[in-house]
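sorry to bug you again but im stuck and you know this stuff better than me. what follows is a protein written twice so to speak, once as letters and once as structure tokens for the fold. mainly i need to know what kind of three dimensional shape the backbone takes. anything you notice is useful, everything is just below:
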Amino acid sequence: MCGAGSVSSVSDSGVSRPQLSASRRSLAVAKPRDEMLTIPQVIEEIGVPRATFYRWRQCRKGPKAIKLPNGAVRIRRSELERWIATLEEAA
């Protein structure tokens, strides 16, 4: 017997193929992870000086950031795109 939870099916050609369990199928179609960008990556992408970006953060006008336990700051790609979209709407 293969592994626990392993199910086989026979295709139209008569060849047996393993089928994924429901939990494995959900992993196979799960959304890709939301990329975590560093501040230098964000600055390069939006094309502003570092000081400007930090001023925006201080005034709470920049994208929402995540502070990791080691003190590093990351910004989710989805948050950066959401923030840019709000700027487009306001223009």
